[in-house]
Structures are given as C-alpha cells and as structure tokens.
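Supplementary Data S3. Sequence and structure tokens for construct A.
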Amino acid sequence: MGFDEKSRLWKNGKFIDWKDATIHVASHVLHYGSSVFEGIRCYQTNRGSAIFRLKEHVKRLLDSAKIYRMPVSFSEEELREVCREVVRVNNYKEAYIRPLVYRGYHSLGVNPLECPVEVVIMAWHWGAYLGKEALEKGVDVRVSSWHRLAPNTMPALAKAGANYMGSQLIKMEALADGYVEGIGLTASGYVSEGSGENLFVIENTKIYTPPLSASILPGITRDSVIQIAKDLSFEVIEQDIPREKLYIADEVFFTGTAAEVSPIRSVDRIQIGEGKRGPVTTAIQKQLFGILSGETEDKRGWLDYI
C-alpha cells in the first residue's frame, strides 16, 4: 500500500490537499481511540468505475458513530456522494476509500462529548491485502494467543479504531512467528475472526461461519459471500466453530473489503485440505470477482457506478 500524497481528500465539507490533512496532537482521538471508520473498494468494471456496496458501508459507518454517541452532521446520501467524488477528483479508476469519523481538538479527559466530531473521506490505491499470490495459493495463518473482545466489554459491531488495537496484537504476533495472518478466538474459545477479516470453514461442501455473537464485525463482504454461496446452492450455517474444526476442514478462507476472498492453506502449520485453494472457495471467488468486473450480472445492485 502506498499513499498518493498528490491526491486530495474531503474533510468536514470541503476538499483539501493531502499534505494539509493534519490534526492537533491534543485531539481526543489520539489519546483515547475515539474514532470509527470504513474501508470501501472502487473497482474498474467493463462499464466504468464502480464502488462496491457503498450504501451498506456508509450505513455501517453511521451505525458505528451512533453506538459511540458521535453525531455526524452529514446525511447518508451526502457521504455516499463524497465517496464518489473523492474518486472523481483524483481521477482514479480503482481505489480503496477510507471514511473516518473521529473526536477532534477541544479538551482531554475520558468524557469526549465536548470534542468536535470530524469527518474525513480519503482514497488511495491498495492491491491484494494479503499478498499477490494469496487469492490463488492461499496463506499460512496461526491461531492467536490474543482473544477477541468479550461480550459487553466493547461493541464488536462497531468498526471502531480502538478495536483494532487487539487486531494489531494478533497481526504482529503472527508476523513475528512467520505467518501471514492470525485468527482470534472468542472469550469462550470458539473461532471469531482474523485481525481484519471474517472467516469461513467448508466441510463436506457445507459452509460454516461464526455468528455475530462471536465478537465479529458484521462484514459486508461476509454478507455478500453468504448470499453468493446460497445462489450457488451451498448450505451456509452460522454457528460457533471449535478451534480444531479449522484443522480438519476441507477448506478455510478469509473475507473482507481488503482481503476480498483469500483462501487459507494452513493453520498452525497444519495443512488445510490439499493445501491450496479449494473448489468451493474457487466458485465463490469466481462469482464475486465476476460481479466486481461487470462480467456477471449484478442482480442485487451492489455496484454504485461513478
């Protein structure tokens, strides 16, 4: 990932140069993690550039802000239009779009209510999140020693910056031990998700995925994959998944805006299936990427054309 420092971004109602997008070191967000955000992809299709599931992403952003009592002074439609415009302004064909809502500069203390709510939307180019070969050959991951959020500690349904401190611990531990990614377990020891991805397990062509109660983010790519799998006549079951199910599964894959659909070839040095992308993962990838390229009918209206 590399930022385009010649680009322009949108902050609190107007476009500014990338270099001018600064905040004060006493801003609340720096000290207390008071931010929520989204990751959205814009793809170049055979009909032009299109943002994938823009409406759902902006809705989740505002839901996250509502959970944290952060009033946003822009409507859903206004924010959707800014997401389109930040792609247009920078003449991008494809882009990763990052809306961010955070508590800014006023005063410090745990109480954030007097600090202004700032809204920023930026974009840049971002390729394969887990590496160029990950989508085909799969990645090696480990189960982390760090658990995901326990219920009623912090809201897992909010895509909040503070939640990603735990994600960083999972990711850094995995990298330090020679893996590409880590998988966090719930406080009860069931499979939750990766540091920034949802998880799916295939056994006997049935697809299993942890429920929302497993401290997972309600992923939009996750939801898309569930719908696609059902279209392809696969049975999708949302239920608690024991850790050892990962080892004996036929296939396992990650989903996410950044990761898209990335197969997992080993967990804790135990080979999954044949140690490469399996047929179910391949079928789901093909259908999703067909929609994203415009080659497959977008019957649900997931593409928002620029």
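Construct B, processed identically:
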Amino acid sequence: MLQTFDPRNKDILININGVLAPRDEARISPFDSLVQGGDGVWEGLRLYDGKVFRLNAHLDRLESSAKAMGFSEIPTKEVLIEAIQATLRANKMTDGVHIRLTLSRGEKITSGMDPRLNQSGCTLIVLAEWKAPVYDSTGIRLMTSSVRRFPPDCLDPNIHHNNLAQSILAKIQANTAGVDDALMLDVHGFVAETNATHVFLIEKGVVSTPTTHACPEGVTRDTVLQICRDNKIPCHVDDLSLTQVYRADEMFCTGTMGEITPVIEVDGRSIGDGEIGPLSQHIGRLFQEKVKTAGDPVLS
C-alpha cells in the first residue's frame, strides 16, 4: 500500500500560524520543536460535504494531548476552527479532504530539549489535502512487527504526539515483507494496533478490540464501538492475543486516514476465508451512514 500523488494537491495553500503559503514555500523554523524533537501533537480530520467528522472529539483529544505534554499555550477551539475554515476556503475544498492538524510547542531561542527555551508560543499547522481513504477496499495484508508499543509507564499512548519513530520502524518492516502494514503488540505480547490504525476482530459474531493501554483513544475506534452498541452488535474491549487474530472470522482496521478497512491476511495466514466478511461490510455501511450525521459544519 503506497499512497500516490494527487495532482490537485500541487498548488494547495498550507496554513502556518495564520499565514497561508503555497506548499513549495510553506516552512517552519529549524528551531521549531517539531524539528528539534518531534515535540508536538496532531490530529487527522476528514471533511465530508462541508462537515468535519466528529470535529469536537478530535479537538478535545488535541487539547488533552497538549495538556499532557505541558504546553503553556493551547489555542482555543474557536481559534483552531477558524484556522481550519480559512484553509479550506482558501483551497476551495468542500469534500473528499483529509486535514492534518499539528500543534507544536513552537520555536526555541536556541537548540535544545528544555521547554523553557520555547518562549514565543505554539506553532499551528493546518495541512488540507484532497485525499480519499488510502487503503485498498478489497482488504489489506499485515505482518506482526518486532517493534513493541510503549506501555503508559514508558510513554503514554493516549498522548497523540508527533514522535512516530515506532510506527515508522514497524512500517519499514512491513514494506520489507511486502505487505501493507504492520501489526504491533504491546510489551506483554497482546495486540495493540497497527503502525497507523486501530484493530478489530470478529469471532462468532462478536466484535472485539484491544484496550487503550498501548494504543491511543481513537475517534473512529470509538465511533465503531458506538455503532455496535446502537445496533445491538455484541462488542467488547479486552486484551487480545495473536491466537485470537489467527482464528478470527473477520478483521478490520479503523482510522481517519483509511476509515474502515478489511484485513484479509496476517503473517501469511488468511483471516476467515480471505475475503471481506459480512459483519465487517455491515459495520462499514453503518459507518458511512454515520459520517453523514456526525459531522460538524465548518463551511457555510
């Protein structure tokens, strides 16, 4: 699975601290905390017909992560929404758009890790691209990575931070193995997530997903759990082992970038019959109905 370049994104304008610049000119300082140490937090948003799906939930998570990182200044929701609106209007975007919202601790007066060197406020980046869901709708293949997700006592996964080295290393392993993505375990050997998405298993009609002990609190993940509850589909959150993965009848991944994506193979083993399962398809249809009603208008 390799994303391709959409020619419509050639001349997009990127919003950095309120200044809109063409993609070839948009820059942040080499003294910015993102460059110095991946010191930032981020959200992925998706625009459907002028509405951002569960915008408030995403902005709440951004604020939660920034507080956990000890940012001294955090933009209000109103400021963030205005920046998103300005970016979408400048690019004449109304639908089929993915938005990468990034907030760093800002520029330092000199290079170094100490947050006291950050004395000029945060850096806010709004990157909106024309981008359809990135995964193959017919199903993806995974391999189990040797890179483990941190537990909360090492680096709390519920901080949605920009230090993505674990994910990148796992993705390199998946690329080398010739599969789409990597399945990642926690330090106890239980399933955490993939290098980019949350994981759901279906066995005998019951939907299950890992706890957030070693993966972030996903907005799409939460939406799927709510869909199951609303539609009386049995579901639970628990520790899941690779044995449960291998014997699952169906499997799918969730995330803003790819929405709901079936998994048809893990470690060379077919999941179920190697095709998209009926309950996965049903949940996918219910999710598509949900995005039409759970969006927050940002364009008028």
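The CA atoms of residues 50 and 132 lie 15 Å apart. The mean pLDDT is 96.
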